[in-house]
Amino acid sequence: MEGNVLIIGLGLIGGSIALALKKEHQQATVIGYDLNEQQAKLAKSLKVVDDCCEFYEEAALEADFILISVPVMQASKVLEKLSTLDFRKQVLISDVGSTKERIVEAGAALFPQKNVTFIGGHPMAGSHKSGIIAAKAHLFENAFYVLTPTDLERDAKQVETLKDWLKGTKANFVTMSAGEHDLVAGVVSHFPHIVAAGLVHQAEDLQQKSPFVSRLAAGGFRDITRIASSNPTMWKDILIHNKETLLQLIDSWQEQMNLVKLDLEDGNEEKLFDFFQKAKEFRDGLPVKAKGAIPSFYDLYVDVPDYPGVISEITGYLATEQISITNIRIMETREEIYGVLRLSFQTDEDRQSATECLGQYTNYETYIV
Ligand SMILES: NC(=O)c1ccc[n+]([C@@H]2O[C@H](COP(=O)([O-])OP(=O)(O)OC[C@H]3O[C@@H](n4cnc5c(N)ncnc54)[C@H](O)[C@@H]3O)[C@@H](O)[C@H]2O)c1
Ligand SMILES: O=C(O)C(=O)C[C@]1(C(=O)O)C=C[C@@H](O)C=C1
């Protein structure tokens, strides 16, 4: 597509979308603005945008597409500022905020004029890293990208235009109401971030009792708390915007913890087993996507002798058969002789091929848990 694009907020998400958009629409001119001047300058020198501006009013009036990619409380302010401009041509405005209801309400109220259309958006993939340095063109490949038009029938054409602008993200677009989005995102994204931060606080408090807490915080603790390293401003804003949903989720979580507590106090083995078994069944049955909310993990465990170079030996065999691994980790050392390697694959077929490959080249035992 040809045209002028303005991206307001040149961090992880704004930068990633700019890269994907420029790749797909080489005729488009992408102008970037960021409150943090250094960030904007860096975006220009890294060629994430064609140019950057000190004030965005002029670029906004010339834009065909404006994307707002700032923390959600700031997004409402940017929308207010844009609404004071005298747009003469047709312009499509969207955002990438992790919450939708309040932003979409503001968009609908602030732009009654026919030539300005606001459609809320949320790419459901990201990272705990922030800033332009972490931006990647492929960040949203295969991830869900939620669009929340206020009136699907009226905005149908603009929704298609928006998808065209965002085509380079290679995301899977889904449309839903802003309310439904905030409920679902609350459950699968916002609330888990609260729990992750809570677990880290608990570990930090207990660190006073034993310095081993942080030294032994490996494996499961690291997996479940990675997202606690995310940007605090972004998450503070998300909680404020999605307050009602999150208050309800906190209540139901507390109820659930109380039940586990009672079962534990009673020593009710059957109920405790059920708690984990039912969670496992639901988790194992979640749809597997290459990227997005739930990453796919097909794990294969390998008992290997504990000597230097064993990892490159294994990866070498798999490379010979062109089998790609998404992750590799040493789990433990047994009796100082054997180690357990966990190899993760994107598909069950890759895992099967890896089992056969290691069976052919080595006598190491492989197993699936
Ligand atoms: N990080 C994720 O995983 C993720 C995923 C999907 C959506 N989101 C949403 O994307 C948005 C941006 O998040 P991010 O991860 O890119 O954050 P980020 O910190 O990497 O980038 C945000 C940028 O916005 C700039 N900014 C702040 N206020 C501004 C304003 N008023 N005007 C112009 N620039 C301003 C900051 O200087 C910063 O460079 C947030 O709304 C977030 O909820 C984040
Ligand atoms: O992978 C991560 O680090 C994320 O937290 C990404 C994540 C998520 O919760 O899934 C975080 C916030 C976004 O709005 C969308 C995606």
Helices and strands, in order, run as: EHEHEHEHEHEEHEHHHHHHEHEEHE
Distance between the termini: 49 Å
Q: What small molecules accompany the polymer chains?
A: nicotinamide-adenine-dinucleotide, prephenic acid
Q: Give the DSSP E fraction (strand runs of 2 or more residues).
A: 15-25%
**Beta strand count:** 12
Domains, number: 3
CATH architecture of the largest domain: 3-Layer(aba) Sandwich
Q: What is the CATH topology assignment of the largest domain?
A: Rossmann fold
CATH class of the largest domain: Alpha Beta
Give an overview in words.
The chain has helices at 12-24, 37-45, 57-62, 72-83, 101-110, 156-165, 178-206, 212-215, 219-225, 232-241, 243-266, 269-284, 310-320, 348-361, and strands at residues 3-8, 28-33, 51-52, 65-68, 91-95, 116-123, 144-148, 172-175, 298-305, 327-334, 338-345, 366-367. It is α/β, with parallel strands linked by helices. It folds into 3 domains: 3-175, NAD(P)-binding Rossmann-like Domain (Rossmann fold); 181-284, 6-phosphogluconate dehydrogenase C-terminal fold (Orthogonal Bundle), CATH 1.10.3660; 298-367, Alpha-Beta Plaits (2-Layer Sandwich). The strands form 2 sheets. The protein has an 8-stranded mixed β-sheet, sandwiched between helices. It has a 4-stranded antiparallel β-sheet with strand order 10-11-9-12, with helices on one face. The radius of gyration is 24 Å and the shape is globular. Mean pLDDT is 92; it is low at 290-296 and 333-337. It binds nicotinamide-adenine-dinucleotide and prephenic acid. The site of nicotinamide-adenine-dinucleotide has 31 residues, from helix 1, helix 4, strand 6 and helix 10. This is Prephenate dehydrogenase. It catalyses: prephenate + NAD(+) = 3-(4-hydroxyphenyl)pyruvate + CO2 + NADH. InterPro entries: 6-PGluconate_DH-like_C_sf (IPR008927), ACT-like_dom_sf (IPR045865), ACT_dom (IPR002912), NAD(P)-bd_dom_sf (IPR036291), PDH_C (IPR046825), PDH_N (IPR046826), Preph/Arog_dehydrog (IPR050812), Prephen_DH (IPR003099). Belongs to the prephenate/arogenate dehydrogenase family. It comes from Sutcliffiella tianshenii.
